[in-house]
Amino acid sequence: MSIQIAPSILSADFANLERDLKAIASADMVHVDVMDHHFVPNLTLGEPVVERICQVTDLPVDVHLMIEDPDRWAPEFAKLGAASVTFHMGAAHAPVRLARQLHDMGVKACFAVRPAEPVEPIFDILDEFDMILVMTVEPGFGGQKFLANQMAKTRRLRDEISRRGLDTHIQVDGGVSPSTAATVAQAGADVLVAGSAVYGAADRAAAIEAIREKATA
Ligand code: DX5
Ligand code: ZN
């Protein structure tokens, strides 16, 4: 299984986004966290900024919506040039309808679970999604401690995907660093989001490679 690294620009310098996007050119995608002060207690950026990010980066843009009413807003983000849009189990009213709508727009659809949410309810609709995001922190902020107790869930999800011969990706987000990368990869995750571990490092390319190496070792 090939590992993909998705640096999160939540930990970048928002006054120097273009510079900080160039610094992660060796990554596989860029992860953009959209927060609304309602679904999570933080507020980041919206459509105009996502649109400019899509215009200035060559990387696929992976939009992680931590917002209420993604049924209303996810298609608006999909229009801007994102490669994938992730919305949360705890916010979506009609996840299958929304996933199909995103696919009709040519955008990958991803479904996210928070640490207290079980993954089993997704099993019946797994084939509607390109990727499942297992949060390994409570969503809302960068730099939190990795929740190792999410690995059993990740393993159950990987086993179900393998059993059914699906090609669904598993993304993990929160506290991923060179020291936790092997753990998440062994549990079956193949898309690793890392914010502070990449942007907190002086050499961002080296940090990306360090995570990749640990995950593939
Ligand atoms: C948190 C966001 C993450 C965040 C991860 O809710 O979804 O993408 O940037 O940050 P780190 O890697 O620092 O835990
Ligand atoms: Zn995220």
UniProtKB/TrEMBL annotation:
A divalent metal cation binds at residues 31, 33, 64, 173. Keywords: Carbohydrate metabolism, Isomerase, Metal-binding. Coiled coil: none annotated. It catalyses: D-ribulose 5-phosphate = D-xylulose 5-phosphate. Binds 1 divalent metal cation per subunit. GO terms for molecular function: D-ribulose-phosphate 3-epimerase activity. Substrate binds at residues 8, 64, 140-143, 173-175, 195-196. Pathway: Carbohydrate degradation. InterPro entries: Aldolase_TIM, Ribul_P_3_epim, Ribul_P_3_epim-like, RibuloseP-bd_barrel. It holds the Pfam family Ribul_P_3_epim. Its cofactor is a divalent metal cation; Zn(2+); Mn(2+); Co(2+). Catalyzes the reversible epimerization of D-ribulose 5-phosphate to D-xylulose 5-phosphate. This is Ribulose-phosphate 3-epimerase. The gene is rpe.
